[in-house]
Each structure stands twice: as structure tokens, then as C-alpha cells.
Amino acid sequence: MNFRKLKVVLESTLFKSAGIYTMTSVLNSAIPFFLLPILTRYLSPADYGIVSMFGVLVSFVAPFTGLSVHGAIARMYYEKDKVDIKEYITNSILILVISTLLVSTLFYFFSSVISDISSVPSQILWVVVVISFSQFITRIVLTLWQVQVKPLQYGIYQISQTALNMLLSIVLVVFVGLTWKGRVYAQLISLIIFVLIGFFILFKNNWLKFNINRTYIKHALGFGVPLIPHALGGVIMTLMDRVFITNMVGIETTGIYTVGYQIGMIINLLATSFNQAYVPWLYSKLKENILATKRKIVKFTYAYFLIILVMAITLSLLAPPFLSFFVGKEFSQSSIYVTWIALGYAFNGMYMMISSYIFYAQKTSYLAWVTFSTALFNLVLNYVLIRKNGAIGAAQATTIIYLIKFILTWILSSNLYTMPWNIMKHKNIGS
């Protein structure tokens, strides 16, 4: 690969933004990461398991509170010469409010069933809905900064919220002694504060225009609702393993598994950080529709695949000696899950690079069904492998499913948006 010529495509602005996003995500994730030695010494594996299952519920509810229309805001920002983006954002928030009320009603009537499956006490389930609503508002603010290529503001907002979350967690868990409830309430309080800050930012920057527009509502729903199977598929693949472990092995094992999962997710952190900077840049280059540029993007993509796999293998080798002293003794066995989780998220990082073309082509319904179908297979695979191998089977299922998802998405992407994946063809063009 000619890296000198590749610089023509990968401009310095991309790497500056990627650097800031990566630093932001590293710091943002480092905060809860450094909570691990504290929480694993003040919470039992069962307590940590409840915290984990609470997170599963939040993630499961998220696609339904807001109906995944936040992605439409990012896409329509690039069409702001054709739409009133301020009015579009406001109508998206209206969708959020109505959908949250519907979700709240369902949680009220099915609270006992939800509690039995998740092991999260029914009295705390209302917090799940409030947090999901709050995350949508903060996501809108972050999305607007991302599409405007303002990674510094993005980072300050995100890191400040996570830092407050950490501080409150330490106070409520360590000093007040609320155990798992302290971790849940810390998330609730910090998010509510930053939702208020988020609304202030939206008003101050004149991003809201109060006028009900049925056309915008219909368009946002048309973009977001087909993504619900996609989002649910992601939840099933990333979180349903803990539901199976909780019900087939025990809530204590869920807590230990979650600690190992968090270490393996370092690969996902790095992949997501880069993707946040890469996608706006990629969209701008795809709009130019230059074959030579596309070929260089493909070459870079292949290099990325190799790098992220090497990083996953390195992390899996370093995890056992590191976790032996980093977490509490009750969680020392968590290192056995890291290898499989790290490899799984390496394949997921490769998937993210490929799926961007489908989002650009606005063919999200196709992607949704790929994700949802592989997620359903993941349910079967989790059951079979956990029954055969115990909790490690859930980690193995993660790797297998992400690999299948990556391959199927690559095939789909190749059919929906043409890219010169065979770099041996026309090799003299732009090389």
C-alpha cells in the first residue's frame, strides 16, 4: 500500500477529529473503567449482576423511546438546504415524548414479568424509562456537534456527564452504602442534570423551532422505525447473553461475566471512537463519487481490519495478569471471557466500517433485517453454547455472531452501494 498517496484521501482533519474522539471516548470509558476496582470491592457479584441487568433493560427500551429517529437528524443535517433542520429536530423530540409515554404504560402493566426475567426489582423500573428518555436528548446534542465537526464540545459534554456519574456512584455506593441502588441513582441524577444542560444548549444555539410538521414526523419515523429491528438486533447480540446467564446460571455469574465483558469492550471503544470521526468524512467523500478516492478508501479499510484484529489479540493476552490485581477477588475469573469478547468486537468494528455505505444509501431497512435475523440466531446460539459450556458459551456466541453479521453486511453493502472491493481490478486508477 502506498501510504504517501493515501494521505490525499485521509486528510489531516479526519485524523485530528478521530484523535479527539478517541481521546474523548478513552477518557469517557476510563472513568467507569476505573470504577471497577471500587465497585468490585463494594458490590457483590450478585449486586453487580443487578447493575448489569439494569443496563440491559435501558438498552432494550432505548429503540422504543424515540423510535430511533435520532439517526434521521444526523442524516438530514446534510440536507439542511432542503429542510428546516430546527423544525425537524423539534418534531423528533415530539416523537420522543409520545413514544416514552407509551413505553411507560407498558412498563406499568408488565412490571412483574419484566422484574422476574431481569432480576431487577419492580420498584426501580421507572428509572429505566427516565434514563432512556434522557439519553435520547443528550444523543441529539452530541449528534449535532458530531455533524458540525465539533469534537471538542462533544468531548467536554460527554466526559463531564460521565465524571459526574462516577463521582455520584462513589458517594452513593461507598459512603452512603446504597450498594447497587447507588449505581442506578447515580446514572439517573447525572443524566437528568445533563438533559437540562442539553435543552439549554439547544435553546441557546437556536436549534429548536416549535411547529408541528407532519411531513417531518413521517420522514423521521420512516427513517427511524425500520431501524428498530436493527437496534433490537444490536441489543440482543450485546446484552441478551446476560439474560441467558442470569436465568440459566445465576445473577452472581452475570456480575463476573460483565466485568470481563467490560474489558473486552475496549476494542469496541476504539472502533466506535474512530467511526465517529470517520463517518462524516466518508459521507463527504462518497458524495464526490470519484473512483480513485473510493479505491484508496477500500485500501485503508483493509488495513483497518488487520489492525483491529491484532489489537484484540493483544488485549486478550494482557487481560489475565492485569485483572488478577485490578478487580476484587470475587471477580478474578472474569478474564476468561475477555478473548472471545475482544474478538467479537473486532468483527463488530469491521462491520461498522462496512455498514456506513448502507446508511449513506438510505437503505436502512435491509440492514435492519440482517441485524435482526443474526440476533435471533444469537438467541439460539447463546442457549445451546451456555447449556454446553456454561457462561463462556455466551462469549463464544458473541464472537461467532459478530463474524456472521460482518460477512452478511459486507455482502449486502456490495449490492446496495458500489465500492471497488476487488483492489486488483483497475489497479492503475488512482494508485
Question: What characteristics describe this protein?
Answer:
single chain, 431 residues, 2 domains, 18 helices
Proportion of residues in helical segments: over 70%
Main sheet overview: none
Number of helices in the DSSP assignment:
18
Order of helices and strands: HHHHHHHHHHHHHHHHHH
Number of strands: 0
Alpha carbon gyration radius? 22 Å
Low-confidence stretches: none
β-strand amount: under 5%
- What is the terminal separation in angstroms? 9 Å
Topology:
Layout: H1 3-6, H2 12-33, H3 36-42, H4 45-61, H5 70-77, H6 85-109, H7 111-118, H8 125-147, H9 151-175, H10 179-204, H11 214-224, H12 227-248, H13 251-264, H14 266-288, H15 291-326, H16 338-360, H17 364-389, H18 392-416
Helix pairs in contact: 2-9, 2-14, 4-8, 4-10, 4-12, 4-13, 5-6, 5-8, 5-11, 6-8, 6-11, 8-9, 8-10, 9-10, 12-13, 12-17, 12-18, 13-16, 14-15, 14-16, 15-16, 16-18, 17-18
Describe this structure in words.
The longest helix has 36 residues, at 291-326. The chain has two domains: 1-14 and 229-431, no CATH class; 35-225, no CATH class. α15 (291-326) runs antiparallel to α16. The chain has helices at 3-6, 12-33, 36-42, 45-61, 70-77, 85-109, 111-118, 125-147, 151-175, 179-204, 214-224, 227-248, 251-264, 266-288, 291-326, 338-360, 364-389, 392-416. It has 18 helices and no strands. It is mainly alpha-helical and 431 residues long.
Structure described in brief:
With 431 residues, this protein is mostly helical. The protein contains 18 helices and no strands.
